[in-house]
Write a structure and sequence with these properties.
Layout (H helix, E strand, L loop, with lengths): L5 E3 L9 E3 L18 H30 L25 E2 L8 E4 L6 E8 L21 E7 L4 E7 L3 E10 L7 E10 L7 E9 L6 E7 L2 E9 L3 E6 L17 E8 L7 H7 L1 E4 L9 E4 L1 E2 L10 E9 L2 E9 L11 H23 L8 H16 L2 E5 L2 E3 L7 E2 L3 E5 L10 E2 H14 L1 H12 L11 E2 L2 H5 L8 E3 L9 H14 L2 H24 L46 H20 L5 H11 L1 H8 E2 L4 E2 L1 E5 L3 E4 L21 E4 L4 E5 L4 H8 L8 H10 L6 E2 L2 E2 L27 H14 L7 H26 L5 E2 L6 E2 L11 H6 L3
Parallel strand pairs: 14-17, 21-26
Antiparallel strand pairs: 1-2, 3-4, 4-5, 5-10, 6-7, 7-8, 8-9, 9-19, 10-18, 11-12, 12-13, 13-19, 14-18, 15-16, 20-23, 21-22, 24-25, 27-28, 29-32, 30-31, 33-34, 35-36
The structure holds 2-acetamido-2-deoxy-beta-D-glucopyranose (2 copies).
Length: about 850
């Protein structure tokens, strides 16, 4: 029935009947017209209505179920939509918020233009020589370290190539309505001044698609500046780098400097490097040199785009040389002086002094007797954490059991530190709680801003996707199979660690801003806690289980528990719904205690949190559920056998080799040698320590004594470099989880867990109990071992590492890894 044919009768006539027009009117000839329908037809009609209603309700309900995962929690945002805008937060608007680039700058606008550096050694025999842009371990740089960075107004970084060092200095100048100006000073310094090295710097500016406008100013064939407009930045001008003097030229030599530029278009920000490489052509440098010199080819804008959005200036010279980039905001009208030359140097100097003074005030390392190079190392660790903070915008791909295909989470910003600039330049939920133990010490406002952003990513179920891969630059770094996040899967709620420190301070100081912050956070925290307490609970009351373990995989020696954060740490060999995980129980106990304290200080109902906290920290119940009498340790419990190994699959019987399918999967598969049974999982390592790590074991419990004995036993966890992740005696120690996956949490020393160990030892050496003195002794030597080794490895290799080899102390895995490994600063400062 067309809508036009349906008209409501004028009022006063029968209710709920409709006047029919045209063809439909003929239906009135139906014998039972005038409302006297055949009872049979009436029944059919009613049935149809019911069926339709049921179907519609059903489909609506299905849609509702599918959408739950992407429905934000109904609670005001912690960081309102304008919270990162230059009007509300000018001091954090611009920053080095592209941790994946060696040097990259952007603003906290969701469609911010990006600026950054690429460079290339020229006149080599490579065709073309490697172009550096995104941090990449494959580049084999000797190091790249933010030596000082305050997370807000400035940063100084050194990037070390084999033949030269690049110093990138970033400095801001407040003013106007759009976050003010900033300048970058970039210096290329040869290691051996007698050796001739020619390097090209490519400094670029790019719009995120067509958000804004750029106009290049080209004078005498040189790109001198770019002016532009963007909705969140207003008008702006960027002075592109110039060399004041060719410092590299020796007396009497003609200075060798060449300029070129590229004005082009990039559809996506992750294509900048490829597009630039395509814009390179080979030229001769001078008559004396035969090696190729690569230079940019000028204007190349495709016809079908609105205009150029990617502009690059190439400066090539013999080392050393220094250049400045100056960004000026159009709304900054009363600027006294531009941020360059002597002014830049002077402001930078005072910023560095401020940084040094604040660093000592916060961490007291000089006072504690650390030497200058040790203090500089600690400054680098902190600065890399702060310099690694990024600003991302986009949506995660997520899936619940109601979705057949992954769907997009809502688009949102994320301001967060990252674990590792080359390898993990994006947000990770459980890392971030650790990061904020350090960040909050330096600048509690930055920390609140970060935690607020994360909490705003919570959906109505209380779930926060654990790995945040937002925006094209971030997605380009992740293989697609790892992109999708599932709402059944949790990750340790480590934000309760910095929140615990915050609430402790708040109870003492009663600072109104802290109280307001916790009050705003509270509804989200309540839902977050409830998510863990309900979705992650085990079959038996008051037990908990990590979800996301796959019992069907055949190649894994022990099915991974990615959700726990400890990936291949051995758990029950056969995942079941009644297994129980001691680490998760302890995390939830911690969370309940912090929730109680927050609720109580806000005058909210806190008794239920207190009840849950008491129950989960009750040592008798804990021991009953998780203490293995046989192994004398805290353990997971589940369907388990230790007797399993990886073997090459046997070929099907009675088959000649030539008859086998060519593509037969020959990867090793797991073979079970002894049938599993329900039991405690007797792998000894970090997971067994959790009741101790999170200070749940009673200070008077003899189990604490046993734990102290075990961690100091060199055949178990003790090494000269920190506590290893799993006992050297364990069957899983150093074992591959599949033919191709080397041990990860099966031996190496991890700094976040060692930080928790020190924190626990610090605690047990300050509360009364029979093991107080013992805890103190262990604390001192563990702390010394960790700090000494991380520092030694930094000096030796130029990097802070993802983890450390338990036999040699050598840094391993991704690097630089200045996420939680940077907690070494807190170990030095004894802040827990
Ligand atoms: C930011 O937005 C809030 C509403 O969400 C508004 O009350 C406030 O005035 C805005 N602040 C500024 C500086 O625009
Ligand atoms: C946590 O879950 C248990 C049930 O498993 C419940 O009894 C308890 O009240 C919950 N705690 C809170 C604070 O909601």
């Amino acid at each position: 029935m067309s809508k036009a044919g349906l008209r409501q009768r004028p009022k006063g006539k029968e209710k709920n009947t409709y006047e029919l027009s045209g063809d439909e009117k003929r239906e009135e000839k139906w014998p039972y017209a005038n409302g006297q329908l055949d009872p049979y037809a009436k029944a059919i009609g009613a049935a149809v209505v019911i069926v339709m209603t049921v179907l519609i309700t059903y489909f609506r309900y299905q849609q509702y179920l599918r959408d739950i995962i992407i429905t934000p929690i109904d609670s005001p945002l912690i960081i309102p939509a304008n919270g990162s805008s230059p009007t509300v937060n000018p001091s954090r608007f611009w920053g080095t918020y592209r941790p994946q680039a060696y040097f990259g700058v952007k603003s906290r606008s969701k469609t911010s233009p990006v600026l950054g550096l690429m460079w290339m050694t020229q006149l080599t025999n490579q065709m073309p020589p490697p172009l550096r842009h995104w941090c990449d371990q494959g580049d084999g740089l000797e190091s790249y370290v933010w030596q000082k960075h305050d997370g807000e107004s400035f940063g100084v970084q050194e990037i070390k190539e084999k033949l030269y060092t690049i110093k990138t200095e970033f400095l801001k100048q407040p003013g106007g309505d759009h976050g003010g100006d900033w300048s970058a000073k970039i210096s290329f310094i040869p290691k051996d001044p007698t050796r001739s090295v020619v390097v090209s710097s490519f400094f670029y500016l790019a719009l995120d698609q067509d958000n804004g406008q750029l106009e290049s100013k080209i004078t005498k064939g040189r790109l001198t500046s770019v002016s532009g407009w963007h909705e969140d930045l207003g008008t702006f001008e960027v002075q592109m780098p110039n060399i004041a003097a060719a410092e590299g030229a020796k007396a009497g030599e003609k200075p060798q400097v060449k300029y070129s530029y590229f004005v082009s278009y990039a559809k996506q920000l992750d294509q900048l490097k490829d597009i630039l490489v395509n814009g390179l052509k080979v030229e001769a440098w001078d008559k004396g040199r035969t090696q190729p010199y690569f230079s940019l080819s000028g204007r190349r804008v495709p016809r079908d785009v609105a205009g150029p959005n990617f502009m690059v200036k190439q400066v090539t010279a013999q080392l050393p040389f220094t250049m400045e980039v100056i960004y000026q905001s159009g709304s900054f009208v009363d600027r006294q002086e531009e941020l360059s030359k002597e002014k830049f140097t002077a402001v930078m100097q005072s910023k560095e002094q401020e940084f040094d003074a604040k660093f000592e005030k916060v961490f007291l390392l000089a006072q504690r007797g650390y030497k200058v190079n040790e203090i500089n190392f600690a400054k680098s660790a902190l600065s890399n954490m702060l310099g690694g903070i990024g600003y991302f915008y986009g949506s995660s791909l997520v899936k619940s059991r109601y979705n057949t295909e992954p769907i997009n989470y809502w688009e949102a910003p994320l301001y967060t530190a990252v674990p590792s600039r080359p390898f993990f330049p994006r947000g990770f939920l459980w890392d971030e709680g650790f990061h904020n133990m350090l960040i909050r010490m330096w600048n509690s406002d930055i920390s609140k801003d970060i935690i607020g952003h994360w909490m705003d990513l919570m959906n109505t179920e209380g779930w926060i996707p654990r790995e945040q891969i937002l925006g094209t630059e971030a997605r380009a770094k992740v293989p697609s199979e790892f992109v999708v996040q599932r709402n059944t899967n949790a990750n340790p709620p480590t934000f309760f660690l910095p929140l615990q420190s915050l609430i402790k301070e708040m109870i003492q100081s009663n600072k109104p801003s802290d109280k307001a912050y916790l009050k705003a956070l509270y509804p989200r925290l309540r839902t977050w806690f409830n998510y863990y307490n309900t979705t992650q609970k085990g079959d038996i009351p008051f037990t908990y289980r990590w979800h996301g373990r796959d019992p069907t995989l055949t190649k894994q020696l022990n099915p991974l528990t990615l959700t726990s954060g400890l990936d291949d740490y051995p758990r029950a060999s056969h995942p079941t719904t009644d297994e129980r995980h001691v680490d998760l129980r302890c995390w939830i106990a911690l969370a309940a205690g912090v929730m109680r304290d927050i609720a109580r200080s806000l005058g909210q109902e806190w008794q239920s949190y207190d009840d849950t906290h008491r129950l989960l920290t009750d040592n008798t119940l804990l021991d009953k559920l998780h203490w293995s009498p046989k192994a004398q340790q805290y353990s997971d419990w589940g369907l388990h056998t230790d007797k399993a190994r990886l073997e090459k699959p046997k070929p099907p019987p009675n088959q000649h080799p030539s008859q086998r399918p060519q593509q037969m999967d020959t990867d090793k598969i797991r073979v079970i040698l002894t049938e599993p049974s329900k039991q405690f999982v007797n792998a000894f390592g970090y997971v067994s320590l959790f009741p101790f790590l999170l200070k749940i074991v009673d200070a008077k419990s003899p189990k604490l004594d046993k734990i102290l004995t075990d961690i100091t036993d060199p055949t178990k966890l003790w090494t000269d470099f920190g506590l290893r992740s799993i006992s050297r005696n364990s069957k899983f120690y150093g074992r591959f989880n599949t033919e191709h996956d080397p041990p990860y949490w099966r031996g190496p020393i991890w700094i976040n867990m060692n930080y928790l160990s020190l924190s626990a030892l610090h605690h047990y050496s300050s509360v009364e109990g029979p093991y107080k003195e013992r805890a103190k002794t262990v604390y001192s030597s563990l702390r010394k071992n960790l700090v000494t080794n991380i520092f030694k490895e930094f000096e030796r290799t130029g990097y802070i590492w993802e983890n450390y080899n338990d036999k040699t102390g050598e840094g391993k895995g991704s690097h630089p890894f200045t996420g939680w490994s940077a907690l070494v600063v807190l170990m030095m400062a004894e802040t827990f």
